[in-house]
Amino acid sequence: MIYFPGVDKIEYEGKSTDNMFAFRHYNPEEYVLGKKMKDHLRFAVAYWHTITYEGADQFGVGTFHRNWYGSTPMETAKNRVDAFFELLTKLQVEYFCFHDVDIAPQGNSLKEFFDNLDEITDLIKEKMDETGIKLLWNTANMFSHPRYMNGAATSNEADVYACAAAQVKKGLDINKKLSGENYVFWGGREGYESLLNTNLELEQQNIAKFFHMAVEYAEKIGHKPQFLIEPKPKEPTTHQYDYDAATTVAFLQKYDLIQDFKLNLEGNHATLAGHTFDHELAIARLYNVLGSIDANHDEKILGWDTDEFPHDLLTATLAMYQILENGGLEPGGINFDAKLRRTSIEPNDLLLGHILGMDTFARGLKAAAKIKEEGYLRDLIKERYSSYDKGIGKKIINGDTSFEDLFRYALENEEPKVKSNHIEYVKGKINDYLV
Fold first, then answer.
1. Of 28, 47, 232, 213, residue with least CA distance to 137
2. How far is residue 349's CA from residue 308's CA, in Å, rounded to a whole number?
3. I want to staple 104 with a disulfide (CB 3.0 to 4.6 A). Which of 116, 237, 280, 380 is the partner?
4. What per-residue confidence (pLDDT) applies to 236?
């Protein structure tokens, strides 16, 4: 059965094309800074927003027209595998990501769920072997089931903690089975709603132990993917423990996990934390934990996690600049954690959404590469901090001074002459790179 009719593989045709189903900017074989565009970007498609999402929101039921529904949940799950790999093949994307509950029905018990996962991942492996498409990462959904209403690894119930551990063990077994390159932990309910009834220290210690056990198990089975934590503030828990990049880094350092974990950062989550996306990437890069990203755009007017397909060129450019400065993301990548609007109801709109996201990041890559190649921001920053290249500034950098020395220096010299940043001009120059 054909799930996305009337469309063959999406090819690069250039920005002058009128073909809706063509890349205008993403040319996978084009070299940028000595590396193929596809190797810089390592695009992945998210199972949950493409094949399982039905177009529902807080105020209405699903609107999408889909033709992969079967007579039973397992029949639907099998049809979705076929539809998903047809989509990946037509987009010529090399990676995909999934939550465990995306791919198989949970049934009435963990055992039934795990049996369903075994059956569906057998089919997924067949498709992977047939197409050469790879698993960027998988993760366990430990936030949707009622048992996780108080968290998973931070639950007040030890039995719930054990269920969460079983789910992650199964997830790691699947990751090995499918040769996954990364494994993600997204703690959707790892936080608290009120301190009045929360043992904050115990919950933090328990989730740290959980992560240590995951590392130990991966080493035991001889398959240790890059472990990633995905920070997110608010939504759904009032106080998330992994609020943003800086909060998560502090947790990793405190509990001796920094050597085993990096971060999977999402654009929309950055906004919810009150940051820009490039800020979060820069913080992760500073601590050498920038591992992978989820690419999407938020509608700031609405104020929740809207997960639109990326279309803001400035955001994509600044994100790609940080990624280039990081030396890339491999073995991580750029996963489109993005969903169609409720009004984009046809199956082929999934192709159009991903074309938009891929073209946006391709343009962002080329603009960021030009900024890096010409050294505009590098030279700007070097000049702005040039006072630390000589004199008292160099002594500060080298640790060759003290408060007493600085006290005398400040009194003996004139009031400092502070220069303008000309930040409006700088922003205008960055806009020039976007054209």
1. 47
2. 13
3. 116
4. 87
Q: Are 15 and 348 in contact (CB under 8 A)?
A: no
Residue 161: how many CB atoms within 10 A of its CB? 19
The answer to whether 298 is annotated as binding is no
Active site residue 389: no
- The tokens describing 423, both together, are 């930040």
Q: Which structure tokens are listed for 238?
A: 């009032």
> How many other CB atoms are there within 10 angstroms of residue 341's CB atom?
15
Residue of 49, 99, 275, 279 with catalytic role: 99
Whether residue 99 lies in the annotated active site: yes
**Do the annotations mark residue 305 as ligand-binding?**
yes
- In single-letter form, the type of residue at position 306 comes to T
**Confidence at 191, pLDDT banded by 50, 70, 90:** very high
C-alpha to C-alpha distance for 22 and 60, rounded to whole angstroms: 32
Q: Which of 25, 40, 100, 102 is catalytic?
A: 102
Residue with tokens 């030009």: 370
Q: How large is the C-alpha radius of gyration of the chain?
A: 24
Contacts of 311 (CB under 8 A, 6+ apart): 297, 356, 357, 360
pLDDT tens, 375-417? 999 999 999 999 999 999 999 999 999 999 999 999 999 999 9
pLDDT value for 304 = 77
User: What is the residue type of 192?
Assistant: Y
Looking from the CA of 125 toward its CB, the CA atoms found within 13 Å total 13
Domain borders along the chain are 31-374, 378-433
Q: Tell how strand 35-36 and strand 31-32 pair up.
A: antiparallel
- Extract the tokens encoding 240: 């998330």
276: left (phi over 0), alpha (psi -120 to 50) or beta: beta
Residues contacting residue 435 through CB under 8 Å, at least 6 positions apart = none
The CATH topology of domain 31-374 is: TIM Barrel (3.20.20)
Instruction: Check pLDDT > 80 for residue 131.
Output: yes
The string of DSSP codes covering 157-184 is -HHHHHHHHHHHHHHHHHHHHTT-SEEE
Is 29 annotated as belonging to a binding site? no
Main-chain phi, psi angles of 53, to 5 degrees? -70, 135
Closest of 100, 96, 10, 87 to residue 45, by C-alpha: 96
Question: pLDDT digit string (tens) for 343-368?
Answer: 999 999 999 999 999 999 999 999 99
pLDDT at 433: 97
pLDDT over 90 at 299, yes or no: no
What's the residue count for the chain? 435
Provide the percentage of residues in the chain whose pLDDT is more than 90.
Answer: 96
